[in-house]
């Protein structure tokens, strides 16, 4: 018996987390998923604001009402379109630890999380909590910025570094692309024009083509004189990509490729979702 595809979606009821819920529900419709809405309450912080509510009864009632409302809306909109089920859960604790713990408990396939996006005051390219979830998660994470509302993706951009695992990652991406009849651009970005990059690109392309059974895959080698992340951002915009995808088991992807762009006011995660593939 095949395991039901499971999506975990933490929410704090902010605009960005509501956008993440929409993405989770829409994708869940295609994968016939089980969707779990998840809120982490921080009773300690709440009691500082409402010291008379010792047992946090009013807080819990408020949170339950909010989740029930979201749950009802999703069932009404998405169950008829293919979502298998929707449920909700509240725990007390810290968002990162509890999200990762629940993901393991329910054997989630992906965590869909919202972020406020990058601003000049943050060290991380995305909000600190979403960033930590990306770094520490053992499963895929889809990061949805606050200003991004769901639309049917027409083009997915996969940033590759010529890893052997890319073959499996591309197949996973194609599974999503097929649902929307979307194009997939497999893009390798390098600094400067190097003969080795061109050679590796040709080898990778030759290896991938017979492995991929989808005729809407494009193989692109891009060279950028400046920062790689800014180059990828430019490609994402000029190619009209709807989602950036990367295979990243460790935090070094963000450190190596993105961190240096902060001073240049890169707007990557303000207007495009990021899907970080962690496993297969």
What CATH architecture of the largest domain do you see? 3-Layer(aba) Sandwich
Specify Rg, calculated over alpha carbons: 20 Å
**Number of separate helices:** 10
Mean pLDDT over the residues = 79
- CATH first level of the largest domain: Alpha Beta
What is the global morphology?
A: elongated
Which ranges are low-confidence, i.e. pLDDT below 50, for 5 or more consecutive residues?
Answer: 45-49, 117-127, 258-269
How would you characterize the largest beta sheet? 10 strands, mixed
What is the name of the CATH topology of the largest domain?
Rossmann fold
SSE sequence, one letter per element: EHEHHEHEHEEHEHEHEHHE
Beta-strand percentage range:
15-25%
* Sheet/helix structural class: alpha/beta
Number of strands: 10
Ends apart, CA distance between termini: 18 Å
Number of structural units classed as domains: 2
Family: Belongs to the universal stress protein A family.
Protein name: Nucleotide-binding universal stress protein, UspA family
Pfam families: Usp
Domain UspA: 5-145
Model description:
Residues 5-145 form the UspA domain. The protein is of the alpha/beta class and 280 residues long. The protein has two domains: 6-145, HUPs (Rossmann fold), CATH 3.40.50.620; 155-277, HUPs (Rossmann fold, 3-Layer(aba) Sandwich). It contains ten helices and ten strands. It has a ten-stranded mixed β-sheet with strand order 3-2-1-4-5-10-9-6-7-8, with helices on both faces. Helix 7 links the parallel strand 7 and strand 8 (217-224). The longest helix has 22 residues, at 57-78. The protein is elongated and about 60 Å long. Residues 45-49, 117-127 and 258-269 have low confidence and may be disordered.
